[in-house]
């Protein structure tokens, strides 16, 4: 059995729409999800191939590769913004490889299995985590084709024109049992281009040390990993870091966990492991403001961390309650200053335009961001993605959403939802204004130049400046 896994293209027009200046600073990183699945397949004796179309593999070239190699099973991973591209690929594959089994994975099919499989482009959908489910599916197809699929937990499949969803598979309990992602099947990490706000040195690798998030944010899709928090042991993580450093020659790591410091003692052990193993690599992480302390941040800095990313989300206490953040403006403010006092850089993510947002709360968020010593602030557009509490709430209220066009949080032009009292045009102007007012302050520009440490970082800062400068008014 030959298996090919595809990461569909996510071109500039898909991500930013008409907001073309942002295209030069998009975050393009290696797809860990399908790299994990490929590793599990290979560990169990199957031939696996990965094609990452985000790095310029054209539709024509992709079909040429598939036609030449003629895989038995083709897996395509898709988020909601990339689903239309995934569907286009699957439809074309049907025409050239009619016997191939086409499997869809990712958060979109997990949240909307019946809808995702309704038009017949895909044979099967993977619901939730894919490693164990995909392996069992391949084993079953090898023996019996598409019969008896109902025995497999964690899938959706078509049968006689209808879509059936099997029993949900329990989350993987011990993440330490998973092999490391098969990065050797991906293009060289130097080919990827992370957003300039996230690195000082290149090449950069992303790494996940935990799955699941205990927070209850209403805008976040937890359909893949769930709300239960599962984590890898520090020694297992350090082994993967050593592989990244010595085998793949990376110079920086971005920990992609939703709540990296949720278990503080685990991070203390990880930081000690950096020193014990002599791992001199810089890194950044995403975490929550309620899961840090001065002692922890200092330990992280000594271990190579130079920046933390907080999901601050709003500069308005009422909006924080509506979003389900579970923290206050004062907690947000304190966490930012605490990180700066320990010598760390700080990125702040803000989510604007969610239900309950007003013109006043939008301005409160912008002023809050400008009043903090943030190095970077991302004002992300709210999109009611399937799988989130907001999506379920809005659907019950009678809203219907078309995700077939640009529905990325980084597009300022394609707005599929605005809260009551704010027009689409007003919201688009705010998105541009917020970024320009935050980044184009002379004092902020000078601070960024003074704090720049590497040539790679300087190049990124220059790209970032012109991306913001060229935003339309």
Description:
By secondary structure, the chain is α/β, with parallel strands linked by helices. It folds into two domains: 164 residues, Rossmann fold; 241 residues, TIM Barrel (Alpha-Beta Barrel). It is 38% helix and 16% strand. It has a seven-stranded mixed sheet with strand order 2-1-3-4-5-6-7, sandwiched between helices. It has a six-stranded parallel sheet with strand order 8-11-12-13-14-15. The model has no long low-confidence stretch (mean pLDDT 92).
Features:
2 domains; 38% helix; seven-stranded mixed β-sheet; six-stranded parallel β-sheet; 473 residues; 16% strand; TIM Barrel; globular; alpha/beta; Rossmann fold
Which percent range describes the beta-strand content? Answer: 15-25%
Shape: globular
Please tally the helical runs, counting DSSP H or I stretches of 4 or more residues.
Answer: 17
The profile of the biggest β sheet is:
7 strands, mixed
Task: Trace the largest sheet across and list its strands.
Answer: 2-1-3-4-5-6-7
Kindly give the count of domains: 2
Structural class of the secondary structure composition? Answer: alpha/beta
CATH superfamily of the largest domain: Aldolase class I
């Amino acid at each position: 059995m030959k298996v090919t896994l595809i990461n569909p293209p996510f071109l500039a027009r898909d991500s930013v729409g008409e907001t073309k200046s942002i295209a030069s600073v998009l975050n393009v990183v290696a797809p860990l999800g399908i790299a994990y699945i490929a590793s599990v397949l290979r560990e169990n004796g199957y031939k696996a191939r990965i094609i990452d179309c985000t790095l310029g593999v054209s539709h024509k070239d992709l079909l040429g590769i598939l036609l030449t190699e003629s895989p038995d099973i083709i897996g395509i991973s898709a988020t909601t913004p990339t689903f239309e591209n995934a569907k286009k690929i699957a439809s074309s594959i049907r025409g050239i490889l009619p016997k191939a089994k086409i499997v869809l994975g990712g958060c979109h099919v997990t949240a909307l299995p019946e809808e995702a499989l309704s038009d017949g482009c895909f044979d099967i959908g993977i619901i939730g985590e894919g490693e164990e489910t995909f392996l069992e599916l391949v084993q079953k197809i090898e023996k019996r084709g598409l019969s008896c699929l109902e025995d497999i937990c964690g899938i959706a499949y078509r049968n006689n024109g209808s879509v059936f969803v099997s029993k949900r598979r329990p989350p993987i309990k011990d993440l330490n049992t998973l092999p490391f992602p098969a990065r050797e099947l991906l293009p060289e990490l130097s080919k990827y281009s992370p957003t300039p706000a996230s690195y000082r040195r290149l090449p950069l690798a992303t790494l996940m040390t935990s799955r699941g998030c205990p927070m209850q944010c209403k805008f976040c899709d937890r359909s893949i990993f769930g709300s239960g928090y599962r984590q890898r042991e520090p020694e297992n993580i350090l082994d993967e870091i050593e592989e990244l450093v010595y085998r793949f020659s990376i110079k920086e790591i971005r920990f992609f966990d939703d709540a990296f410091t949720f278990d503080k003692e685990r991070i203390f052990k990880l930081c000690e492991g950096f020193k014990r193993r002599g791992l001199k690599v810089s890194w950044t992480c995403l975490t929550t403001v309620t899961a840090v302390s001065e002692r922890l941040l200092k330990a992280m800095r000594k271990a190579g961390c130079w920046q933390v990313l907080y999901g601050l989300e709003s500069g308005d206490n009422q909006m924080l309650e509506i979003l389900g953040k579970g923290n206050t403006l004062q907690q947000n403010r304190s966490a930012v200053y605490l990180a700066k006092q320990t010598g760390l850089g700080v990125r702040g993510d803000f989510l604007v335009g969610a239900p309950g947002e007003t013109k006043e709360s939008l301005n409160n968020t912008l002023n809050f961001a400008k009043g903090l010593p943030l190095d970077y602030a991302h004002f992300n557009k709210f999109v009611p993605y399937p799988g989130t509490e907001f999506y379920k709430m809005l659907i019950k209220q009678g809203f219907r959403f078309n995700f077939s066009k640009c529905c990325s949080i980084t597009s300022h032009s394609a707005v599929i939802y605005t809260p009551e009292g704010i027009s689409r045009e007003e919201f688009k102007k705010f998105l541009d204004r917020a970024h320009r007012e935050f980044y184009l302050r002379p004092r902020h520009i000078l601070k960024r130049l003074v704090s720049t440490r590497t040539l790679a970082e300087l190049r990124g800062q220059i790209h970032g400046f012109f991306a913001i400068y060229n935003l339309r008014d």
